[in-house]
Design goal:
By secondary structure, the chain is mainly β. Helices cover 1% and strands 65% of the residues. It has a 21-stranded mixed β-sheet that branches.
C-alpha cells in the first residue's frame, strides 16, 4: 500500500486531500484425491505419500482460483471537526469524509478442463458526515447526527458460471452485478441534569440499495437447484431505543433504570420454482419477511452499605409476517424477571445469588413454550490479605435451564434446542500479585 497526502489551506481550515494505492493477490486451492483407486492401497487408514496421491488426483473436482485487486482511492478527510458557538447554550461541530475507489479486479478460475478469466472495474464511493449540537451549560439536550454511505463490490466468483460437478446444485454467474450501497442514518440525543438523572434517545435507519443476494430456482421435476447472485432492493432495518436512569433516596441509595426498544426488519430473498426451461437471467421471485420486536427492561438497585439488592424484569414481543405462500404469521413473546443480591460479610466472606423466572410463549414447538425457574449462587472467601480468593459457584441449582436459540430470515424459520450441561458446580481459586519493577 502506498499513500500520499496534500494539505490545502482555506483561511483557518486545513483540508487534506489524499491518494492511496492498494494491491492484493489471493490464491485458493482445493485438491481432492481418489485414494480408493490407488494401486495396492487396501486400507484408507494409512495415508499415501504426496507423490502417490498426485497420480490419483480428482481433476474434475479439484480447483484453483486466483484474484488480484488493485485499488486507487482519492479522498478528502479533514480528520477533525469544525466547531463554533451557535449561541450561549450550544456549540455546533461538523466533520465529514468522502472518498471514491476505482477497484480493478482480475479473476482466474481453473477446474478440470475448464478455465475462466474475468476482469472488472468497480467504482466504490464512501462518505460520512457527523454533526453535533453540544450543550455548553449542561442543562439541556445534546444532539448527534451521523449519516454514512458505504459501497461493496460483488465477489468476482459470482460473475462467472462455475463448472457443474454436482448435478443437483448448479451455480450460474451474473455479469450484470453492480456494487451494493448501504445508507445509514443515526440520531442520538442525551441529557443529564443536576439530580443525576440521565436520558438517552437513539434512532437508526439502514437501507441497502442493490443488495447482493444469492437466489435460486428449484426444479420440481428433477430436484435440481440453480443458484445465481442478483442485485435486489428492499432490505431495510430501523430501530429506536430510550434509556432513563434515575437515582433517588436520601443518599441516592436507589437506582432505577428503564430501557425501551423497538426494531423493524425487512428481509428480502429470492426463491423460485419451475417445471420447464426458463430464463435464469430473470430475477427469481422475492420472498419478503417482516419482523418487529418490542422490548422493555426494568431494573431497580438498592445499595445498603456494602450490600446490593436488585430486582429486574425484561419482556420482549416478536411479530413475524409475510405474504408468501406457505408462510404462517405468528407472534411470540418472552419474559424474564427475578432478583439478585450481593452480600459482603465479615471475615472477607462473600455470598451472591440470583433467581430468574424465564417464560416463553408463541413458539411453534410446544417444547419451547415453557417456564423455567433458574437459581444460581456463589460463595467466596478471601485470604492472605486479599491475595487469594476461593470461590464456589453453583449454576442452575434447580436443574431447569434449557439452551434455546431461535432465528428467522426470508428463507427459513429455525427453532433449535441444544443439549448442554447447564447445571453444575465450579470450584476455582484466584491468586493476585503485584510486582514492582526493579529500579535501574
Amino acid at each position: 500500500m502506498v499513500s500520499y497526502t496534500k494539505y490545502l489551506q482555506f483561511h483557518m481550515i486545513q483540508l487534506p486531500v489524499w491518494y492511496e494505492v492498494h494491491h492484493m493477490a489471493q490464491t485458493r486451492t482445493s485438491e481432492l484425491y481418489l485414494l480408493d483407486e490407488l494401486a495396492g492401497n487396501t486400507s484408507l487408514e494409512i495415508l499415501p505419500s504426496m507423490t502417490q496421491a498426485l497420480t490419483v488426483m480428482d481433476v474434475n473436482n479439484s480447483y484453483m482460483s486466483k484474484e488480484r485487486v488493485l485499488d486507487h482511492t482519492v479522498g478528502i478527510a479533514p480528520g477533525h471537526s469544525v466547531a463554533f458557538e451557535v449561541n450561549k447554550d450550544y456549540l455546533f461541530s461538523i466533520m465529514c469524509n468522502a472518498s471514491v475507489t476505482a477497484s480493478h479486479r482480475i479473476f482466474e478460475y481453473n477446474k478440470g478442463e475448464n478455465s475462466i478469466d474475468e476482469t472488472r472495474t468497480f467504482w466504490l464511493p464512501q462518505a460520512s458526515i457527523y454533526i453535533m449540537f453540544h450543550n455548553i451549560t449542561r442543562k439541556n439536550w445534546n444532539y448527534h447526527i451521523d449519516a454514512m454511505v458505504n459501497s461493496t463490490a460483488p465477489a468476482m466468483i459470482n460473475l462467472v458460471d462455475l463448472p457443474v460437478t454436482d448435478h443437483l446444485n448448479r451455480v450460474l454467474g451474473n455479469t450484470n452485478l453492480t456494487p451494493s450501497n448501504m445508507y445509514t442514518f443515526k440520531f442520538r440525543a442525551d441529557r443529564s441534569d443536576s439530580k443525576k438523572r440521565k436520558h438517552l434517545f437513539f434512532v437508526e435507519y439502514n437501507n441497502t440499495h442493490n443488495a447482493l443476494a444469492r437466489g435460486y430456482y428449484y426444479d420440481i421435476l428433477t430436484g435440481q437447484k440453480t443458484y445465481r447472485t442478483y442485485n435486489v432492493d428492499g432490505n431495510m432495518r430501523a430501530n429506536f431505543s430510550y434509556e432513563f436512569f434515575f437515582p433517588f433516596g436520601k443518599n441516592r441509595q436507589f437506582n432505577f433504570t428503564t430501557t425501551t426498544r423497538g426494531i423493524y426488519n425487512r428481509s428480502v430473498d429470492l426463491i423460485g420454482t419451475y417445471a420447464e426451461n426458463i430464463d435464469f437471467s430473470v430475477v427469481a421471485p422475492k420472498n419478503i419477511v417482516n419482523s418487529f420486536a418490542a422490548s422493555e427492561k426494568l431494573s431497580l438497585n438498592w445499595h445498603v452499605g456494602k450490600h446490593r439488592l436488585t430486582a429486574f424484569a425484561d419482556a420482549r414481543l416478536n411479530r413475524y409476517t409475510s405474504s408468501d405462500i406457505g408462510f404462517v404469521d405468528f407472534t411470540s413473546w418472552t419474559c424474564n424477571y427475578g432478583t439478585s443480591a450481593i452480600f459482603n460479610l465479615p471475615k472477607n466472606w462473600g455470598i451472591s445469588t440470583d433467581l430468574t423466572l424465564y417464560t416463553r410463549r408463541g413458539f411453534l414447538d410446544s417444547r419451547l413454550n415453557n417456564t423455567e425457574f433458574v437459581w444460581n449462587a456463589r460463595v467466596s472467601k478471601s485470604i492472605f490479605k486479599g491475595a487469594v480468593t476461593i470461590v464456589l459457584d453453583a449454576y442452575d441449582i434447580l436443574q431447569q435451564l434449557n439452551n434455546i436459540t431461535y432465528a428467522i430470515n426470508a428463507q427459513a424459520r429455525t427453532e433449535t434446542v441444544s443439549n448442554v450441561i447447564p447445571s453444575y458446580l465450579l470450584f476455582h481459586v484466584y491468586y493476585r500479585f503485584n510486582a514492582k519493577p526493579k529500579r535501574k
